[in-house]
Amino acid sequence: MRKGVVAGGLLIGLTSSLAFAQPEDLLPDIFNDPPPEAPAPTPTPRATVKSVGPVPSVEPVPNAPVVQPIPGGAAPVEYPPAALPEDFPTLEELEEMEDNEINELFGLRPRFDVPETARRALSRIGVIARNEGGFPSQSLASQPAALVRAALEGTRGPLVSRWGHILLRRALASRMDAPDGMDAVEFAALRAALLNRMGEAQVARALVQDVDGGNYDPALADAAFDAYLATGDVLGICPITQLHAGFRDDGEWILAQAICNAYRGDTRAAERRLDRALWEEEAPEIDIRLAQRFAGAAGDAGRAVNIEWGNVEELSPWRFALSRALGEEIPDNLLAPVQNRFAVFDATIPATPLVARIAAADRAAERGILSSAAMVDLYSQLYASDTVTDGDRQPGIVLREAYVAEDPYDRLAAMQSLWGDQTNYGRLVLTSYAAARMPVSDALIDNADVMLTSMLAAGLDANARRWSGLVEEGSLGWALLSLSDPTGGAVNDDAVASFIADDTSEDARKSRFLLAGLAGLGRLERNDVERFSSDLGINLLRNSAWSDRISAAGRYRNAALVALLAGVGMQGDDWSRMTARQLYHIVSALDAAGLSAEARMIAAEAVARG
């Protein structure tokens, strides 16, 4: 009964609502409450007009303006003509301008090229997150902006250490917030520019692509342009040239805009713009000819463009990138003087011929740009290629022997063939895993030093430890294991003295680096450090503004800041630019900040390459 009553009550309630509800009024109030009606006008009697003949026609006044009178009898308002700037283009000049120039003139260029809902925040800009191996996002957020800026701007080029390069790249690529007082876009621009200077254009390109084009500033646009050229991705800059055409006015920027117009479908406008650049000498002729060839590939006109290098005196990134993209051969006299600069780019540009990539890979691996696995993949392509000659395929064949030959001596002979007489360090990176597969044997002990160096070039310290019972104390192999062993404790001072006595390196550099590494890792007693420092004529404990800051960062376990400051202290083309004091402070700070693996690898690399 109660259910029936309730149901009945609900039914009554619903029907009552339906019976008394009024439909919603959707009209504005002004239509519901109109103003009071004006009284109807009194009709005026119409006079009767008698016909007196045809009505004469009225001739219109020529060129008389027809003005619709405003209700109420008000006279039309006359506005004075708009005042234009003195340098405003004439109609003839406007007709000659390109679409992007007109858009820039009248402010018609869009600020963003993505919808508002798809735009990304300017926080945690980067490539790798913490769970992917990056540093914590707040690592630098509370650091002084001036210090971070000085560290990023102060590292001007490549680093002497392969492992130092890898560490700094990791820090620069991490998803991190900008320091207090530094704009997020500036922080991204500083990091991308440093990555470019290090030869890490691939990572720099990924970093700048993490920022929406509408948020770019001129510095980030410059870094992006350099990254796209260094990776051979000439068209990658196109969205930025469209959104921020006024950021630059140099010849390369103008040519890039024309190329982008061609690939957006306006090939005729691109051709006219490039012709004008050639006529007005807005860029060197070789740069314009390369741009014409590249832009011509976008359309069906395809006019022939001859590339002549005869009067060209230097190879720029623009010429290098477009030549690689077009398959245009670069003369040796231009490429040789800048081989070291562009070799690291050649190793990663897909359009570079495979044989040229192999030739450039050694330098890239030595610097830390290519890993051992990447090197093996590249040589595997060479081995499997059917487009190169047998002579060019030989390194790939030899590398295969280093891995799969049944006799260990044959594998060792193959590795030695790849290393060469001067022991190319990039080739040691290539053979790291092959060396790790070699059996531990007294018969191979004479080659233990170089095999250990090869293993540690890829961080294979566990494989290297297998040799710890065979290497002689005081030898190079012993020194490498003493520095790289993660379980190592205090070392025998007699073994250190023996190493120093047998050291034949220039200025006893290996001995100085061994002492610095052992002291930085805390594996040598303090009185022994002082005694050996005196014997070698060095002072590891001398302080400077840089050493104070990196030591403080290590004590506070700020690994990202230690990595940036370590990069400042490891600049140079070879290990002769590194001092034992700098190495000591770097290794000590890394170890204190929790980066003991990187500290051990850098210390071992210093002794191996010193």
Overview of the molecule:
The chain is mainly α and 610 residues long. Helices cover 54% and strands 0% of the residues. It has helices at 2-20, 29-32, 91-96, 99-106, 145-154, 162-173, 184-198, 201-208, 218-230, 238-243, 251-263, 267-279, 285-296, 317-326, 332-335, 339-346, 354-367, 372-384, 390-404, 408-419, 425-430, 432-436, 448-457, 461-464, 476-484, 493-502, 509-520, 526-536, 545-555, 559-569, 580-592, 596-609. The model is unreliable at 1-28 and 46-55 (pLDDT under 50).
Present the secondary structure layout.
Elements: H1 2-20, H2 29-32, H3 91-96, H4 99-106, H5 145-154, H6 162-173, H7 184-198, H8 201-208, H9 218-230, H10 238-243, H11 251-263, H12 267-279, H13 285-296, H14 317-326, H15 332-335, H16 339-346, H17 354-367, H18 372-384, H19 390-404, H20 408-419, H21 425-430, H22 432-436, H23 448-457, H24 461-464, H25 476-484, H26 493-502, H27 509-520, H28 526-536, H29 545-555, H30 559-569, H31 580-592, H32 596-609
Radius of gyration: 37 Å
Fraction of helical residues? 40-55%
Strand-residue fraction? under 5%
Molecular shape: globular
Low-confidence stretches at least 5 residues in length (pLDDT < 50)?
A: 1-28, 46-55
The pLDDT mean sits at 87
What is the makeup of the main sheet? none
Q: Which structural traits does this protein have?
A:
mainly alpha, 32 helices, globular, disordered N terminus
